[in-house]
Inverse folding.
């Protein structure tokens, strides 16, 4: 089984090849959650993910014959970029097999690092099968994203750095897909501090490792905003380490992850992808479990599709009461809309959208239903806008 020595040797190979990212306290998140939270900013790596640690450690150990043949990997994006970047740096050919629906930003960045991208299959498992066929056909060295000791040792350097920066952490909360990151981090952390608690987080849509470790039978979904941890089949090597060293695994929902992404963007001014927000999502979902503890969270990646981010931000504004949809019934006469918009403006809200509805309504033919999307300062402000409209003689309701 992997040892602290393997991870320390990996750290020596990685020295000077990538960032020792900051691990610093977030005072605001600490106040909001009741725990003392330290964030490890792996989204600041050149490829915006911790994955290049394992890739660099693996590629650095290739023989001259293996370097000449080239490497192949399957990945939803971050492992792809890590392998592509470090292969390019070392002058090694890299072929990456990605699922067909991988976000465009990840595909383009992978190609930007000089890799040949092959889009195949709807899932990582299908991409994996195809990658093995290509490896055999073209004599390429297969670089697995998590089921490889060299990869796990490289990822473990995250834990090494965290405990050197903040030696007295009580708990580490780590996102889990295939399990490479948490297996490496747990190996390093438990060796340095046997009393530390290590908790894994999976999205409820991809609970493969939870099922494997706990013997549960949660169903698997088909998609998640945390695509970096959307792994159907857990790694064999990580699973053995997790079974021995990880204290617990928890599940979070899509809404928890969305909320965590928006909070990190708004509070920490840092951009993370779904998997990168999973740790904070667990603290938001299970606050009592973490209260009063000194917790290390890994912001493990920052590669998120801009359109997905825009949708998440907008949904976050709705949840926070900063965007609201209201329906106003009024007489269908000239000036009605102007009166409504003026009333909303006087209440201090800004109008995003206006939609007149004459045909699809149960109101009498002389009336019109007007739907407004408004920007507000929060829940109490929405109530204030509704009260102002009612005081002006309009029938009004908030739409959810």
């Amino acid at each position: 089984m992997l040892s602290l020595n393997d991870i320390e040797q990996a750290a020596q190979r990685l020295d000077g090849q990538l960032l020792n990212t900051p691990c610093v306290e977030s005072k605001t998140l600490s106040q909001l959650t009741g725990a003392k939270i330290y964030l490890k900013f792996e989204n600041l790596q050149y490829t915006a993910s911790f994955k290049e640690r394992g890739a660099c450690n693996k590629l650095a150990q290739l023989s001259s014959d293996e370097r000449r043949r080239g490497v192949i990997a399957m990945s939803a994006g971050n492992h792809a970029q890590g392998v592509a970047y470090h292969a390019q740096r070392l002058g090694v050919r890299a072929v990456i097999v990605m699922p067909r629906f991988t976000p465009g930003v990840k595909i383009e960045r992978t190609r930007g690092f000089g890799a040949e991208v092959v889009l195949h299959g709807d899932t990582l498992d299908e991409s994996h099968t195809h990658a093995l066929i290509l490896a055999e056909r073209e004599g390429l060295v297969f670089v697995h994203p998590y089921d490889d000791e060299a990869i796990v040792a490289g990822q473990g350097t995250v834990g090494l750095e965290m405990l050197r920066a903040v030696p007295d952490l009580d708990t580490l909360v780590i996102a889990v897909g295939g399990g490479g990151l948490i297996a490496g981090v747990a190996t390093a952390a438990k060796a340095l501090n046997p009393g530390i608690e290590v908790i894994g987080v999976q999205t409820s849509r991809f609970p493969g490792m939870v099922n494997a470790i706990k013997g549960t039978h949660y169903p698997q979904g088909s998609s998640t905003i945390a695509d970096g941890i959307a792994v159907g089949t857990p790694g064999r090597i990580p699973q053995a380490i997790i079974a021995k060293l990880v204290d617990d695994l928890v599940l979070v929902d899509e809404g928890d992850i969305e909320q965590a992404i928006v909070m990190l963007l708004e509070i920490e001014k840092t951009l993370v992808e779904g998997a990168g927000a999973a740790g904070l999502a667990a603290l938001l979902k299970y606050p009592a479990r973490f209260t009063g503890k000194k917790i290390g969270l890994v912001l493990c990646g920052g590669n998120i599709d801009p359109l997905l981010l825009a949708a998440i931000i907008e949904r976050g504004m709705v949840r926070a009461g900063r965007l609201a949809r209201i329906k106003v019934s009024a007489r269908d006469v000239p000036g009605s809309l102007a009166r409504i918009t003026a009333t909303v403006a006087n209440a201090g809200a800004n109008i995003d959208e206006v939609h007149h509805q004459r045909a699809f309504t149960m109101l009498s033919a002389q009336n019109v239903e007007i739907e407004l999307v408004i920007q507000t300062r929060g829940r109490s402000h929405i109530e204030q806008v509704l009260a102002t409209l009612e005081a002006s003689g309009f029938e009004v309701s908030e739409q959810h």
About this structure: The longest strand covers residues 323-331. The two ends are 52 Å apart (CA to CA). The domain at 4-49+148-316 is CATH 3.40.50.1100 (Rossmann fold). The chain has three domains: 4-49+148-316, 51-142, 321-399.
